[in-house]
Write a structure and sequence with these properties.
Blueprint lengths: L23 H11 L6 H19 L3 E7 H5 L9 E7 L7 H16 L4 E3 L4 E5 L2 E10 L6 E6 L4 E6 H11 L2 H13 L6 H11 L9 H14 L7 E2 L2 E5 L6 H14 L10
Helix pairs in contact: 6-7, 6-8, 8-9
């Protein structure tokens, strides 16, 4: 079942309260505009330059590269989340396994910024800094001329390999950024545990083969139906490592909650779906 059609009066919201009629696509586009991340590339570069001396000092000669990654690099960042994601590439010659690298960086950052400003996340370390928030992801290079890294997953205390730059290109090439951002906004509106990387892969899978010109309304209806019907059972894998099953990072309960919310939203007015 697709979302019910709405009376245009129900689409009035904030600046449009003067009974100005707008279409559903205009409503969704306005949501995207309001939630657009303000973190431009030059700001990310400034943040990296601020952090670089401390990271280089910690790395003790083993830092190979520091670069923008995650949602901000993919063009799928939204307001209210981490301002930017920074990837720290550690040379293969470092003898420490990636879990020790992760814990060492976490301890170093706590010593520098204080325990209240540093938090462990699944594959990243979150920093609260004056004026911005940043997620740092350490990864250890695979041998040879490659962009593949070992990444530590603290949630499951395991490690996996992936191609971080390849992931950025994969999401950018999908041309589904508006739908990915809408899904992230929807997740936040309903306070769901739904990691961004899962959303990215699920959205691309949901509207795979659809026209790139599909409307926001139609595309998001399809995505909600996919969340409702398929998320519980679909195996979402890292496009650069099929052994890295991204969907396993969510518990069954988390998937069920997302599916239930999507089902409920299919019978709601748009103003109660995303806002």
């Amino acid at each position: 079942m697709l979302l019910k059609s709405l009376n245009l009066q129900n689409l009035i919201y904030d600046a449009y309260r003067k009974r100005q009629e707008i279409t559903i696509d205009q409503y969704l586009q306005n949501i995207l505009s309001q939630k657009q991340s303000s973190m431009a590339s030059y700001k990310v570069n400034n943040i990296i330059n601020q952090l670089r001396p401390y990271i280089i000092q910690w790395g003790n000669g083993f830092v190979d590269d520091i670069f923008q990654a995650g949602s901000s690099a993919k063009g799928t960042a939204i307001k209210g989340k981490s301002d930017c994601d920074v990837f720290i590439s550690i040379k293969h010659s470092c003898v420490n396994p990636i879990e020790e690298v992760f814990d060492s960086l976490f301890s170093h950052l706590q010593s520098w910024l204080g325990t209240s400003n540093v938090r462990k996340q699944n594959v990243s370390i979150g920093l609260n800094r004056p004026g911005y928030n940043v997620d740092l992801v350490p990864g250890k290079l695979q041998p040879g001329n490659t962009n593949y890294h070992w990444i530590y997953k603290s949630k499951s205390d395991t490690h996996t390999q992936t191609n971080v730059k390849g992931q950025v290109k994969y999401i950018c090439d999908s041309k589904r950024a508006p739908f990915i951002k809408l899904a992230k906004i929807w997740r936040d509106c309903h306070r769901l545990e739904f990691p961004s990387v899962n959303i990215e892969l699920a959205v691309i899978e949901a509207i795979n083969g659809r026209s790139f010109n599909i409307s926001l309304e139609k595309g998001f209806e399809i995505i909600l139906n996919y969340f409702c019907e398929n998320l519980k059972s679909t195996r979402l894998v890292d496009p650069f490592n099929t052994n890295n099953v991204i969907s396993d990072d969510m518990t069954i309960q988390e998937k069920l909650e997302v599916a239930k919310c999507a089902k409920d939203c299919l019978s709601k007015q748009w103003s109660n779906v995303v806002w």
